[in-house]
Amino acid sequence: VMVSKNLKAVVVKGKIRPQIFDQKAFMAVSKLGPVLYQDNPDMMDMQEHGIALNLDLKYEGSVVMDPNRISQVIHNLVSNARDAMPDGGTLTLGTSASNGEVHLSVVDTGIGIQTDRISRIFEPFYTTKAKGTGLGLTVTKQIVSLHGGSIEVNSQENAGTAVIIELPLSQ
User: Fold this and answer.
1) Residue of higher predicted confidence among 25 and 2
2) SS3 content of the chain, % helix, strand, coil (to 5)
3) What are the helix and strand counts (H, E) for the chain?
């Protein structure tokens, strides 16, 4: 990630290196798979905070993606979801497919995003956190775009947030 000198733009450097992954390989590289293991520090952190993990993996085919970049996307979204549930809740990670696209979803039952803030969440340096750069979702959106995909956020205050990423099944 490179931040421009005028601090108005964030640029993801380099090209994506797409590879074909089936669901099992996708789970492993995106770090969805290791989340299942009890000795995983991220899972232990979520358990300590009363966050239950639910997997809703409906897509069993393959997807073309850069595993390192998509791993970063999933990490950013899971981290945000965890932070949105300080009193516990449920984190659901899902996959599905339709119309030539695979859908990756990260859904939490956390505090949600205020309506007046949701339009700004992908802006560079915009954050509502005490600690944070405001770059995570900006970088996430750029990575998804580099894959020819799109990202949608649906949120309701005090009810949670759903982030749905759509990636083409073939590029």
Assistant:
1) 25
2) 30, 30, 40
3) 6, 9
Scanning the chain, the segments in alpha helix (DSSP H) are 23-29, 32-35, 41-48, 67-83, 115-118, 136-146
Angstrom distance (rounded) from CA 91 to CA 81: 7
Sequence-distant (≥ 6) Cβ neighbours of residue 51 within 8 angstroms: 82, 85, 88, 89, 90, 91
Angle at the Cα of 14 (from 164 to 30), degrees rounded to 5?
Answer: 40
Q: How far apart are CA 114 and CA 125, in angstroms?
A: 17
- Which residues have CB under 8 Å from 54's CB, separation 6+? 90, 91, 92, 93
Phi/psi region, residue 75 (left: phi>0; alpha: psi -120 to 50; beta: rest), is: alpha
Query: For the segment 21-40, what is each residue's pLDDT rounded down to a tens digit?
Result: 555 555 554 455 444 444 55
Coil/strand/helix, residue 146: helix
Cα 140 from Cα 135, distance rounded (Å): 8
pTM: 0.80
CB burial readout 94-107, b (16+ within 10 A) else e? bbebeeebbbbbbb
